[in-house]
Specification:
The protein is an alpha/beta fold and about 325 residues long. The protein has helices at about 10-15, 40-50, 80-85, 105-120, 135-140, 145-160, 205-210, 220-235, 270-285, 300-310; strands at about 20-25, 55-60, 95-100, 125-130, 165-170, 175, 195, 215, 245-250, 260-265, 265-270, 290. It has a single domain, classed as Luciferase-like domain (TIM Barrel), CATH 3.20.20. A hairpin with a 2-residue loop joins strand 10 and strand 11. Mean pLDDT is about 95; it is low at about 315-320.
């Protein structure tokens, strides 16, 4: 069995080889009828998620509200918001899924990420992506068709910025000549950066450079093929394995034996079938699921508590007493 690299406290807590852990996507509310969430009771719900034993919370990078896309995310800037949540929580991992690298100068991403990592005592996990909303790019005078190249350049810049007085040449975002440093540095060896989708790169490039892979829910036969290809490539570049994670939209029904019905990127489902599904994807190599309750029509607090009591104990989290 190939273990995962030990990077920081958040990454090490969330990702265990051959095991599945569970996190929750913020905003933790039902906003199925609106593009923009209300962000009501968000701090109390994040604290509840940590208390109940979920391993991570996940926020998104949505620079612009594009109504046609259908989701403005948590509306707050991801680094500022997670900095606030870092001071209001103790141990839960703080995940970003994901920073659209071409839309940010990488020195700002590197500095913000390392600051958050330091202040949270190593709890940051940073997803990175090339971005997929064409209307955002002209708003920032950036060529949408060059986002793959810009992604690679930004990724390289951020990695180099984690070294002392870095040297970086031939980069779209600027030259680092070893005469200036980027502070602070990460709390540990690096900021863990998980690549989202393909990010306009080959699987070989992603396996060589990424600290993990965020992909989309797919039928298990398709997903196992994807995961196996990913891990075969990882073996060519690393002594350690790399984790695989996915999101999942859930409408949790009160009836534990409610059979799954497909919804957008997930299921309307009962707890017993949800456990069965999680076991099946754990067996094919999924290491973490970020649960999204956007379409869940039941009381959010009660839903979280039911997940904690009925589902979490099966996936290496603390047991919550009934």
């Amino acid at each position: 069995m190939r273990e995962f690299e030990q990077i920081n406290s958040g990454y090490n807590s969330v990702f265990k080889s051959q095991k599945l852990s569970l996190g929750v996507v913020v905003p933790i509310e039902n906003y199925s009828q609106s593009v923009i969430p209300a962000m009501m009771h968000h701090l109390e719900r994040v604290r509840l998620v940590e208390e109940l034993g979920f391993k991570a919370i996940w926020v998104r990078d949505v620079p612009f509200n594009v109504p046609s896309f259908g989701d403005a995310g948590q509306t707050f800037d991801p680094f500022t918001y997670l900095g606030f949540l870092a001071g209001q929580t103790n141990s839960i991992a703080l995940g970003i899924a994901s920073i659209a690298l071409p839309l940010h100068h990488p020195v700002h991403v590197a500095k913000s990420a390392a600051t958050l990592d330091q202040l949270s005592k190593g709890r940051l996990i940073m997803g990175v992506a090339s971005g997929d909303r064409p209307s955002e790019y002209p708003a920032m005078n950036i060529d949408f068709d060059k986002r793959g190249e810009l992604f690679r350049n930004a990724f390289d810049y951020i990695r180099k910025a984690q070294n002392d007085f870095p040297i970086l040449k031939n980069n779209s975002f600027g030259v680092l000549n070893g005469q200036a440093d980027v502070l602070p540095k990460p709390s540990s060896i690096k900021i863990p950066m998980l690549i989202t989708g393909s990010s306009r790169q080959t699987i070989k490039w992603n396996a060589e450079h990424g600290d993990g892979w965020m992909y989309y829910p797919r039928p298990n036969m398709q997903q196992v093929y994807t995961i196996n290809n990913w891990r075969d490539e990882i073996k060519k570049y690393h002594d350690f394995d790399r984790p695989f994670m996915q999101p999942l939209y859930i409408i949790l029904e009160e009836d534990d034996d409610f059979k799954p019905q497909s919804i957008q990127l997930g299921f309307r489902i009962g707890a017993n079938y949800l456990i069965e599904y999680f076991n099946s994807i754990q067996n094919i190599g999924v290491n973490h699921v970020a649960i999204n309750l956007r379409f869940n029509y039941r009381n959010i607090e009660k839903t979280l508590e039911e997940l904690a009591v009925k589902v979490l104990p099966d996936f290496h989290n603390e047991t919550i007493e009934k």
